[in-house]
Amino acid sequence: MTPRVVFPNKILPYLLVAPQLAITLVFFYWPAGQALYQSMLREDPFGLKSRFIWFDNFRRVLADPAYLNSIKVTVIFSIATAVVAMGVALLLAVMAEKVIRGKGFYRTLMIWPYAVAPAIAGMLFLFMFNPSIGTLAVLLRKAGVHWDPLLNGTHAMILLVIAAAWKQISYNFLFFVAGLQAIPKTLIEAAAIDGAGETKRFWTIVFPLLAPTTFFLLVINTVYALFDTFGIVHAVTGGGPGKATETLVYKVYNDGFVNLMLGVSAAESVILMAIVIALTAVQFRYIERKVHYG
Question: Which CATH superfamily is domain 60-290 in?
């Protein structure tokens, strides 16, 4: 029987945990509670008068065609960003592992873009793909593609996905490299001896063993696409053209800080929080079942 371990000081453990609890309460639970309370109020733009209206703001939001459109935009944007960011990062990680000389140098170059601020990353791609002066836009025009993200909603969404995915590729690359290094080389060598080709070795050995890393990055990239891309959306498209790129988080900003509909904006933020919690729960409940932790 294992002897019971008793901490000698009864107060010190609570003191050590207190800072983290205080930060969680002040910066998470308190704002969340305030948002939930404000979502049931009807306020004037200056916040001088308010009236408790229960769930009228939620009914108004869910009946708004513009909000339903932002849900569709967010779904498309989130899936596309996660797929592109994770797919390209995995490809680069696999290719970087094949480099014999200067492997550390290449890895360092791949990680650098993560240090770029979202707004700066957005402006970078906005200039490169600007239909008038953008270098890449000029190349597309010479190739016969009439590129105009300022007026074409599909082009604007493509530009937004490229910018958001580029910003996240470095983060995914770092974890995929770590996952690849954790795979025993003996398994790959044994498969090669048995005659398995490089592609077959990847899909039957390497990729299944990367399942824990892939699942972790799937959760992280989902949250990133829903929340952390606000700066990119604001810098690149501003939700346009014609609300073609207005994601849920950007609509919260538009309704709350631009249109000054404080109660409606709070209701939208509560719904967004509920969506993220539900998505995370579904991912852990169903997708994690297929993850093998070797």
Answer: MetI-like (1.10.3720.10)
